[in-house]
Amino acid sequence: MGALIHGFEIIWKHDLPEMQAVGVYAKHKKTGLELYHILNDDEENLFAYSFMTASANSTGVAHILEHSVLCGSKNYPLKDPFVLLSRQSVKTFLNALTFPDKTVYPASSVVEADYFNLLQVYGDAVFFPLIEEWTFKQEGWRFEFDANNKLCLQGVVLNEMRGNYADFDSLMYDYARASVTQNSIYMYDSGGEPSTIPSLSYEQFRGFHKKYYHPCNCKLFLYGNIPTEKQMQVLHERFLSCFEPAEPPESIPPIPHMGEPVFLSRYTPASEGMDMDRCGLVETWLLPESDTAENLMDAFLLEEVLLGHDGSPLSKALLHSDFGTDLYVYNGCQADLKNILFFIGITGAEKGREREFKNFLHKTLQGFIEKGIDKKDIDSALNSIEFANREIRRGSGPFSLTLMQRSLRGWIHGKGPESSLRYIPAFEKLKAAIKTNPQYVERLIDKFLLQNKHSAMLSVFPDEDFSATLDAKLQKIAEAYEKTLTKEMRIKLQKEQEILLERQKEVDSEEKLALIPHLKKSDLPVPRPAIEETMQFFGEVPAIIHELPTNDIAYLQLAIPVDNFSMEEALYLPLYANALTGIDTHTLSWHEVSSELAYLTGNFSVSCVNAGDLNVQELPLLQNQTKLLREEVVGRSWLLIRAKMLPELIKPAVDFIFQYLKTAAFSDRKRLKDLLVQQKNDMDSAPAHSGHLLMLFKTTSLLSPVKAIDELFSGAAQIRFLRKLHASCAEQDFPESEAEKLKSIHAKILNSGMLVLLCGTAENLKVFAEALPPHLSGLKKPAPGKNLHVEVKTNFFAKQQLTLFPSALQVGFTAVSFPHFSLSDKQGVEAVFASWLSAGPLWERIRIIGGAYGAFTAPEPIESIFSCATYRDPDPLHSVSQIIESIESCATEKFDAPTMERLITGAYSTTVTPQSPTQKSQTAFVRFLNGMSEAVRLRNIQNLLNTQGSDMNRCAELLLAQKSCIEGAALGSDTQLRHTEEAARFFAKMQCEQPI
């Protein structure tokens, strides 16, 4: 050990060649905080304060604390510093995450000064939070008198988890996890079980922070190019020097071994359309610990070989069996607990067949061992893992978040930060082991599954009364407490409720707001530059070319117009798209097709998308040529066929894809029935986890033909279509007449022309240029025709209507949409307005006071629509009025210069957030399809930077001028939708639809 650096001693430094980085591992000598930095050239720096948080019950204490530490701290004693950061930082990621055994606080930025602002505010929040009692009541739970003066339970986390407990798939996973982790912390719900949350006291809540949030229990993950020493200095001076040494909490003990397999049964909420006579069956195994990359690679290999796609050996066997109608959505491994879990299950199973299913499952696995796994299935699995390791990816945040999650798997349990991090060296070892041991996979099946007695077979039964029973439990808790109230206690509780409301409505002073640092406009980085793109023609087919550093992965996209279809045909398109990912041909079975696509591509997907029209006439890609016209590509509906491939597989993959498209038969009616059930099950669960999107599809569909087509593809209209189609073949294979419709759609697709998108390195593009011409010769450019847009205009039109969707959900969702035509010349301004409205009035009225888990804006300038929506909302109809009143308040709000600078900085963050090469390619392609040029994008950014306070008022005024034209929708229980008077006054009429 050398000299201390700002109180830290360097434990080691390692080269990480696969990441082009150095790994620096250090420990703060006085406090014990451990730091690991992946130091490289990436300007997008990320930090993550991580704490092992072992909850010994289901009160949700770790989850409530995760919410609460961000509600004010010693040096930032504001009402909600987190929200202020979200609306005045150029962050590229900002969040907090609760896992079953840890709580993590990550954030990232591409601007060093902004990064240190985030690091210091987050550090103050986790180490010195105020966590006052009002925060606990707001974020966790409280007793509250409702509008009828009746006592009820309220709280943000409580409502979030009530929503979680309305989701069949989510609860089935929780029960499966608990089935093999009995007598450990993993048997509990770290998020909180709704009827258990009210047993958590404020004293226990504060005690949990004291126990787990000392630096001795902190693992700080860093990533990026800011020098480690510079960050150490800030950490030591701002936080660590204030602490005395302490003993870390006990490490999480091993999960007790189960001597024999067990059978268990549980009940979950039934979604609308679910068959009450059927259940879910899942067998879960406890595998080795997740603390080494080698263990993880073995589990990932087993998952990919057995269950990687529908044509994988075990997936195929399950789908061909008569035990269920669909595969369990979480089949495979879960690696974020102390041990890896492995799930194999089905849904739509006949009740009482759990032992028969287990016997079938084990006999099938034994057959794989005896007959051997086909080498091509193993090669496909290895290709899939190699894709995951090689591809430059970015999801909802930077790839460094994935590296953080990998590192913490071992680090949080006492291993070094690299033990579970370095996937690529472990993968190379795995490939070498398979090469020297041809029975490697079969031995994994035997060891991890067949010889592993630590397993549980779980039967999960849908219960129509589940949500009502849980609501009754919560009501009973409130009623029991209300009976204990004396008159004085009741008055005291009412007073506390008033005080909390006053606290929630408080406005932070300018002096407090100034405590949260932010960048000035002059400090903002320049926007991301546009990528270079060219167009070339293969015969008549246009191809957009994006040469980018993709780490030698090639991307192909075929865009086929579908707006020349009728509305009836459009409803079939999502099912058609799903079927096209793996259906039979004239010579191959569907599982042979699925296996070949899995071997040749890293992913093969088909989806339906819609584009609008910004009315920008000069699009650079269309200049200096006359082969492709603007109206042939802009503002249309598309079927997108996407594939990605390794360089050596480009030609065979292209050959197979085009041959497959030409010969797809859609004649395997059992396969079509299975796909219909899968699609229906996915959509049946949508109200529980994506109700806000369904409500937005509904409201916007009445204001725009493009959004009406979205409703056909993805909204309530699609749910009802799938249920009706399923009902027609519930006791038989997919009807021949319906299969003929899919064949007809396919024939029409093949004659609709196409637009091609190619992305990759120069060498990748050269191979594409050689592989594509034989397949594109004879094909056409996108065929003209927007019949679908014309037809939807006659079926979807403005109604100024509030649409109600009853459901069995415990918490609801709301959307309100305004037509918004007058800011087309100042696009960019409404991005600032939307950011402020989301993180300001909507957050305060609906999230903080109302107790909803989320409230946000959804501006769509291309369609001239401005929407607001709520998520897991205990009072969706009240939120309708709160949305409109929030916008009304903005019309007279005073926005001074400091406030505007903060808001502009926050809204500007989306223009500098880095993208992966494929994201850059896809973004440019989508802009082209919507008729947006780079000049317009830069103009919008300049409008954003020039936004004035008067522009904010003007946005509100323009929306309010359309108040008589708004569309609203609410999804909730009968109780939540019963009192409509407050919301109905904003609409010309109201309609209650059938439950979804």
Explain briefly what this protein structure is.
Its EC number is 3.4.24.-. It contains 36 helices and 28 strands. The chain is of the alpha+beta class.
How much β-strand is present in the residues?
15-25%
Q: State the CATH class of the largest domain.
A: Alpha Beta
Q: What is the fold-level CATH name, i.e. the topology of the largest domain? A: Cytochrome Bc1 Complex, Chain A, domain 1
**Number of beta-strand segments:** 28
**Secondary-structure-derived class:** alpha+beta
- In oligomeric terms, what are we looking at? single chain
Structural features, described:
Helix content is 44%, strand content 19%. By secondary structure, it is an alpha+beta fold. It folds into four domains: 8-152 and 201-251 and 475-513, Metalloenzyme, LuxS/M16 peptidase-like (Cytochrome Bc1 Complex, Chain A, domain 1, 2-Layer Sandwich); 271-463, 2-Layer Sandwich (Cytochrome Bc1 Complex, Chain A, domain 1); 535-792, Cytochrome Bc1 Complex, Chain A, domain 1, CATH 3.30.830.10; 798-895 and 948-992, Cytochrome Bc1 Complex, Chain A, domain 1 (2-Layer Sandwich), CATH 3.30.830.10.
